Amino acid sequence: MKIIARKPVQIAIIFYLGFIAFYFYNFNFNLSDDNGKWGTFGDFLGGALNPILGIITIVLTYDIIKGQEIENKQSEFKYLFQILFDVIDENKNLITFKRFDKTHHGRDALYIINKNIENLYKSLNEVEGSDENDNFEKAFWSVYDDINQSSSTFMKTVHNLLKIVDTYCVVERKSTYSDLVRAQFHSEELKFVLYNGIATGGFKNFKTRIEKFTILKDLEKDDSISESLKIRYKKSAFVEFNKKNNFKYDKEIFGYKINLKIIKIK
Q1: Which of 16, 43, 237, 240 could cross-link with 233 by S-S, CB 3.0 to 4.6 Å?
Q2: E-state strands within the chain
Q3: Contact status, residue 217 vs residue 194, Cβ threshold 8 Å
Q4: 50-85 per-position pLDDT tens digit
Q5: Maximum distance among all alpha carbons in the chain?
């Protein structure tokens, strides 16, 4: 079907030439002087080609409709993405942490929140025989309760942004949009995203998308994050494909372009 959609005229010509060749083969490569035979052949040619041309027309119509459907979906995607993207900073500033008599907001609050999670996690790990994964979940949810769940709106926005990029964006643009999302985050915000991704098994889809789009790229060499937490993510969460070591092969054969790309990961 895809071949017909791409090369409709060429396919019709091939069939037409095929029937002409069949005619000459049938009459020993000589032109017949019998008008009746030519009329019969014309009827045969028309009857054979009409269904083929009809199929090509149907396929082309389907291809046009499919293309419009994809274009409409991309318009909807861009609209939803823009709405969520525009409220990232607003939702970030909803995060609050009260310390002594002062209430911290946004990035300042996240700095304190991250420190509290890290310190409590390290303290719990000092207990002999304790499980590091359980300790982290206890530390995270303890601090989460202290901030009255004020981070939930921000994290839902981040999750939904990655979800619609993963689900609705065309493949060749996914990297562009996910990079745009990642570029909005300071290191403290990325740390909090990292912690959320492993806070519970229920966030598996979120964690998978963090890994898929290399959202934690800027934290790869951040030594302030416990290695025991980093290794709970796949390497792809921190390391992008090394484009310098890409091998790309482009060649056109019989009118078809062959693209082959081999990518080396750091």
Answers
A1: 237
A2: 96-99, 102-105, 247-253, 256-262
A3: no
A4: 776 676 677 667 667 776 776 778 888 999 999 999
A5: 107
Question: For residue 50, with 0-12 CB atoms within 10 Å meaning exposed, 13-18 middle and 19 or more buried, which class applies?
Answer: exposed
**CA distance linking residue 196 with residue 188, whole number of Å:** 12
Q: Rounded to an integer, what distance in angstroms lies between the CA atom of residue 63 and that of residue 4?
A: 10
Q: Could you tell me the end-to-end alpha-carbon distance of the chain, in angstroms, rounded to an integer?
A: 39
Alpha carbon distance 228, 148 (integer Å)? 27
Nearest Cα to Cα of residue 166 among 232, 211, 220: 211
Other beta carbons less than 10 A from residue 119's beta carbon: 12
Q: What is the mean pLDDT of the chain?
A: 81
Question: For residues 220 and 233, what is the distance between their CA atoms, to the nearest angstrom?
Answer: 11
β-strand partners of 249: 260
Burial class (CB in 10 A: 0-12, 13-18, 19+), 33: exposed
Rounded distance between C-alpha atoms, residue 140 and residue 148, angstroms: 13
Percent composition of the chain: helix, strand, coil (DSSP 3-state, to 5) = 70, 10, 25
Scan for tokens 């995203």, then name that residue: 193
239-254 pLDDT, tens digit per residue, is 986 554 454 555 555 4
